C-alpha cells in the first residue's frame, strides 16, 4: 500500500512536473518561438541590422558631426557644442529657408488636398472615360521631381514659355524670379511673409503630387458603401449635405495620411527646387535641403551641413511622431 | 598580396577587353599580368566638369591624342555636368573623403588646390615629375606658384582662362554709334545710352551666384589695382577699406543695368542675349568665346568683340584648370602618362583651341589659335596675373561659398553695408 502510495505520489509529482511547463506555456506563449517565427526572424535580422547601422547609426553619426568642428576638408571631430546650430539660427539664409519651408508646406499640402479631393469627387460622379481622367492626373507622379523642375522652369521662365503669349496682353509675371515678400514683417534678419517666387515652385510641386492624393481619395470614396448615401437621401439630405456630413468625415483618415506623406516630402524637398530655381535671388526659393547640399559639399562646412540635416530631421519628426503615437494607441 | 592579385586580374581583364586574341589568353595571361606590373596597362579615370559644347570637344580631343599614344591604357571620362563645376566638386569631395579618388581630377590652380586638397594632404607632389619632363621653364613662374604650396608643385595646368573680359555685340554697338569703354565712367555712359535705346546694357545670368561675384571681383581689381587686390585675399587689407566700399557702390550701380530676369538664367542663357542682340555686353570668362563660336556660330571680331573689363586693362584675372595626382591612386605611373600628355605642347594645342582657352605653356603653337586666342596669349605674357575669387583661386572654398551667398543677397537688396559686413565676418576663413 505504502509502495502504491509512493508510486501515486511519484506519479502525481511527475504529472505536476510535466504540467508545470505546460501551464507556463499557456500563460506566456510569447516566450517560446516556433520554427516559423525563427525563420521569419532569420530573414528579418539582416535587414534589421542594416537598417540599424545605415539609418539609425548614420543619424547618430550626423548628430555627432553636427556638434563637431569639422568645417574644412580635413575631418575634425573635436566637440564644438551647439556652435553650429547657433550660427545657423543667426544666419540670414537659414532664416529665409525656414520661412520658405513654412509657406511652401502650407500652400503645397493645402492645395494637394483641395485639388485631389475636388478632382476625385468629380471623377466619382460615374462619368464616362473615368479611367482616362484618372490616368491623366496620375501620370505626373511617374516623373521624377528633377524632370518636373526642368519643365516648369521653362514654362515659367519670364522670357519663354507661355509668358510670351501673356506678354501680348501686357501681362509680364516674373514667377520664380520675383523677389517680393507679401505681407511681411521683420523677423530676425529677414522679412517674414509669403515670398511670391515660392508660388511658382508650389505650382510645379502640386502639379506633380495631386495625382497621389486624387488616387487616395478616389479609393476612399469607392470604399464608402452606397447604402450610406441611399440612407441619407431617404432622410432627405441634399447631395451637398451628404458630402459635408457623411462622406467628408469618413475620408478623414485619408486626409491624415495625405498630410503626413506630403509633409515629409515638403520638409525634405531638394531635387525640385535644385533643378527648377536653385536658391533664387535673395534666397526667396531656398530650402534647407539646398542649403545643406551647398554648405556641405561646396563650402566643405561638414559640421554646419550636418546641423542643417538634423534640423530637417526634427522638422519631419514634428509631423511623424504624433502620427506614430496615435497609431500605437489605436492598435491597442 | 590579395590586392596584387586583384590588380593583376584587373589589368589582364582590361588587356583582353582591348581585343587580344582569345586562343593565346590562357597561356599568355600569367606572362601578361607579370609584365603589366611594370609596363602600365589599365584605366585612367579623368574627372572633370567639362560637359559643355566647347569644353567637351577639347577634352575629347585630348583623350583621343592620349589614346593614340597609349593604345594600351583605357580612358574613363568621368565628367559631371554643372556650371563652373558646382556639382562635380560635390561628387569629388565625397569621393576624396571616402578614399576613392579618381585617377586625376580637374581643379583650379590657387586656393582651391592649395588650401583645399593639398592642405588636406590628399595630393602627391610632382616636383620630380616636372624635372623629368623638363617643364620647369615651360610654364610661367607665376603659374607654377599658383599650383605650388611650400615649395612643392601639385598639379599640371592645361589651360588659361581670363575672367576680366567683356564680350559685346558688335552690331548693337555699331547701331548706337558706341565706342568700347575703358574706364568705369565711360562704361556707365555707354550703358546709359544703350538703356535709352532700349537694349539691355549688361547681360547677367546669376542663377548660380558666381557670375555676379565675377563682376564684383573685376570691379575690385579695377578699384584696388593688382597688388592691393592680392593683398585683400592675403588678409592684409580689411574688407571695410574705403576702396572696397567704393567697389561695392560701383557694383550696385552696375547691377542697375542688367536684364530683369537675370535670376532665372545661367551664364549661357545670358550670353545668348548678347548673341541675339537683346543685350549689348556680358562679363564672362573667355569660355564664353567658345560658346559664341561653337554653339551660337558667331564670328570673332565680326559678330562679337571683346575688351578688358573697365579699368582692368593690363591685368589678367587668371583661371587655370589643372590636373594633379591624388594620393592613394592604384596606378600612379599610368596617371603620370596622362599628365605628361596633358602638359605637352601637342596636348595643350589639341585641347585649348576647342575649349576657347589659351595654353598654359609658353612655347605652344600660336598659329593654332584664332584671333581671340592670339590676343589673349599676348595679354597673358604682358599683364599682371591676378587670382579669381569666383573660381576659387583667390580664397578657400569656404570663403568663396560665403562670398557667393553675400553677393546673392546683395544683388536683390543692394545693401552695401550688409555686403561689407558679411565679407568682413567671413574674412577669418581666408
Automatic annotation (TrEMBL), chain A:
Q: Keyword rRNA-binding, does the record have it?
A: no
Q: Subcellular localization, per the record?
A: Cell membrane
Q: Where is the composition biased (Basic and acidic residues)?
A: 1-15
Provide the alphabetized UniProt keywords.
Answer: Cell membrane, Membrane, Transmembrane, Transmembrane helix, Transport
According to the record, the segments passing through the membrane are 38-59, 102-123, 135-155, 192-219, 246-267, 301-326
User: What is the first-listed, main subcellular location in coarse terms?
Assistant: membrane
Top-level division of the source organism's lineage: Bacteria
Region of interest: Disordered: 1-31
| Record PROSITE patterns | ABC_TM1
Protein's membrane topology: Multi-pass membrane protein
InterPro entries in the record: ABC_transporter_permease (IPR051393), MetI-like (IPR000515), MetI-like_sf (IPR035906)
- Report domain ABC transmembrane type-1 positions: 98-325
Provide the family line: Belongs to the binding-protein-dependent transport system permease family.
Q: What protein does this entry describe?
A: ABC transporter permease subunit
Instruction: List the source organism.
Output: Sediminibacillus dalangtanensis
Automatic annotation (TrEMBL), chain B:
Q: Which UniProt keywords apply?
A: Signal, Transport
Q: Which Pfam families match?
A: SBP_bac_1 (PF01547)
**Signal peptide as annotated in the record:** none
Cited SUPFAM superfamilies: Periplasmic binding protein-like II
Q: Where in the cell is it found?
A: Cell envelope
**Chain residue ranges for the region called Disordered:** 12-44
**Functional note:** Part of a binding-protein-dependent transport system for a sugar.
- Report the sequence similarity comment from the record: Belongs to the bacterial solute-binding protein 1 family.
Question: This protein is called what?
Answer: Probable sugar-binding periplasmic protein
- Origin organism is Sediminibacillus dalangtanensis
**Source species taxonomy:** Bacteria, Bacillati, Bacillota, Bacilli, Bacillales
